[in-house]
Amino acid sequence: MEIIHTVSHLEALLQQLRGEGKTIGLVPTMGALHAGHLRLVKLCASENDVCVVSIFVNPTQFNNKEDLRRYPRNLEEDSQLLIQADADVLFAPSVEEIYPEPDNRLFDFGLLDKVMEGRYRPGHFNGVAQVVSKLLAFTKPDRAYFGEKDFQQLAIVRAMVKQLQLPVQIVPVPIVREPDGLAMSSRNQLLTEQQRSEAAHIYRVLNESRALVETTTPDKLTDWVIDRVNEVPVLQVEYFEIVDGESLQLVSSWDHSDSVVGCIAVFCGAVRLIDNIRYK
């Protein structure tokens, strides 16, 4: 695996490989890799001649400076995991390399970025669009891989690709969970042992909620999920919303759409965790 730190080196290498007729896949990450990331990497490696993984903790998508400071970073460990997962190129740039000057672009995603994460993390998705658009421009991949745990982010990336008319296939990859159901996340590393145990309650409640779809409305199920998660003292729901899987707008009935998803954000102590569950 080749480790690259500059855009010029990355572009030169990929231009050469592309000229040889090789297909290129990209897995954008912020590092602190876990089995969820590695599933994306392995899928990318299996579907493309060249698998590029980026590790970059993007400052423009953090609206909380303390969250940015605390975000786990361990490039050496990540590199070893990527070698084992058959990645071909690791792109690990500095902030100055990605942003030699401020990126003042403002994206218009209509209502997509006004709900859920967008409501509680203003500017977050604009930052995501800035960095992902840059990474796609640098790599010009045939395919780019994103986990479905960040369900709203996936919708934003798809909208951005459509707006910018980028010739890339966005490949969604299902959530990877721990044995107790907790969605794998780099933030899980920040939990204490006790918090880690209690955090599994989030998915237990989401999973149980599926059985209630036939007998209750989305509004009532929303209240039920929030109340059940909040029963654990260390957990505090920031939001739980049952939305159309395409527009991300609230649904008033289960017949509202062919795709209905419940999205949740929960504070476990000071650590913010997100998850989602598909109802149809």
Question: What brief labels describe this structure?
Answer:
alpha/beta, Rossmann fold, Pantoate--beta-alanine Ligase, Chain: A,domain 2, 2 domains, three-stranded antiparallel sheet
Q: Which second-level CATH architecture of the largest domain applies? A: 3-Layer(aba) Sandwich
Query: What gap, in angstroms, lies between the N and C termini?
Result: 40 Å
Relative strand content: 15-25%
Quick one: how many beta strands? 9
The overall average pLDDT, rounded, is 96
The CATH top-level class label of the largest domain: Alpha Beta
Shape: globular
Order of helices and strands: EHEHEHHEHHHEHEHHHEEE
Low-confidence stretches: none
Q: In total, how many domains does the architecture comprise? A: 2
Give me the secondary-structure category: alpha/beta
Strand sequence of the main sheet, in spatial order?
A: 1-4-3-2-5-6
Biggest sheet features: 6 strands, parallel
CATH domain topology of the largest domain? Rossmann fold
Query: What's the gyration radius in Å?
Result: 19 Å
Number of helices, counting only DSSP H or I runs of 4 residues or more: 11
- Fraction of helical residues: 25-40%
- Give the full name of the CATH homologous superfamily of the largest domain: HUPs
